Amino acid sequence: MWSLLLPPAYFLLFTPLSLLLRVARDPLRRRWDPSATDYWHYRRPTRDNDEPHPPRALR
């Protein structure tokens, strides 16, 4: 009996709820900033990324 009732209850309850949460929520918190010239994040050079290529693992 439960195997006939649980699948429709699952889809009628959780599917609309998950669709609503996906539309209403932005997990990456992307926002439009009209004053921004670009959205590139510049990073400071470090000693680790001075080499143009990573060192070889096996020589």
Low-pLDDT segments = none
Strand coverage percent: under 5%
- Helix share bin: 25-40%
Radius of gyration: 24 Å
Q: Give the averaged pLDDT, no decimals.
A: 82
What is the chain-wise order of helices and strands? H
Oligomerization status of the protein chains: single chain
Shape: elongated
Structural class: mainly alpha
Biased composition (Basic and acidic residues): 45-59
Region (Disordered): 40-59
Structure description:
With 59 residues, the chain is mainly α. It has a domain at 1-25. Helix content is 39%, strand content 0%. The protein has one helix and no strands. It starts with a helix and ends in a 35-residue tail after the last helix.
Question: Keywords, please?
Answer:
1 helix, mainly alpha, 59 residues
